[in-house]
Amino acid sequence: MDQKGFIKHVFPGGNTTRGFVSFYDNILFQEDARKIIILKGGPGVGKSSFLKKISERFCDLGYDIEHHHCSSDNNALDGIVITNLKIAILDGTAPHIVDPVTPGAIDEILNLGDYWNEEDLRKNKDKIIMIRKEVGRLFKKAYNYLAAGSAIYEAWTNTEKLALNPSKLNIKSQKLLEELFEQHPVRNQLGKERHLFGTAITPGGLTEYLHTIIGTSKNVYMIKDSPGASAKHIMNRIYNEAVARGFYVECYHSPIDVDKVEDIIIPELDCAITVSNDYHKAKVFPTNVIDLTTCLEESIYRPLQAEIDKDKRLFDDLLQRAVVSIQKAKKAHDELESYYIPNMDFEKINEVMEDVVKKIMAFVE
Question: pTM of the prediction?
Fold first, then answer.
């Protein structure tokens, strides 16, 4: 291969209004995988660096890669998939514990904890336990803020819905469904769906790499929505219809409302559908725009504006408080890593990485 591979950036798990939600079983399906390597070990043992180095090696060889980012540290990786080879390497430690499903035949455990200085780590046992508890406390606080924010978001939604004209919304939805699928009859095969996050609530706030998910599609439908004129129902209809017609579909969920799919990719149709609102904006050029906010009746909406604005401000405040707690949790986690990093044999880990590269190269045809 003469040119570098393409890197797609996604989140396999997320800090959400329901706490931590994992789609780690969707990173690479067992029935599709040729090999899955699960990394074990503690904080600061070099799992993310290990993943980045292998990714760089195979990207330079021309292989397309998926970077599965950590929502608690968006600069760190929790996994990579070498898509052409159907091989994944995952961080299998808490809070997203991954264990072998098909040991030996597909899954392999690699314990980087074999290369730490246990004696020196034991000397700092009390400090390590104390910091771990603090990290847990801060994440719990963040999730409390997000749960409170969810209640406010629901109140905001219900207020704005008073101005919704459901008939207009239904007409727009039906028209889009017909445009997407009328030329594509049901096929004699089962469709398949894959669920991940395209946006995450991270120490950096709302973080997304949507252009790497959507930007490669020829046809991009952008649906403008708001809490009261939501694309949630139509997006669910689209991905269910695509699966029913036999297509492979990628669905990317919202961390604010996990049941809401905000991005859909249908590779066989070279098509992407993305939602656009204050909390989710893909930096892409759409080929089609559907504005659901025009389904809100201005005469009803206007008297509710002040109430809606207050709900939005309150939600935004709670979201920001959650982000601050996640920032503090990351800072504490960095301190935790500082006890492990000096006690790791990174030369040995680099040797292990080279062994993994050789194993992966054995799958190259």
Answer: 0.96
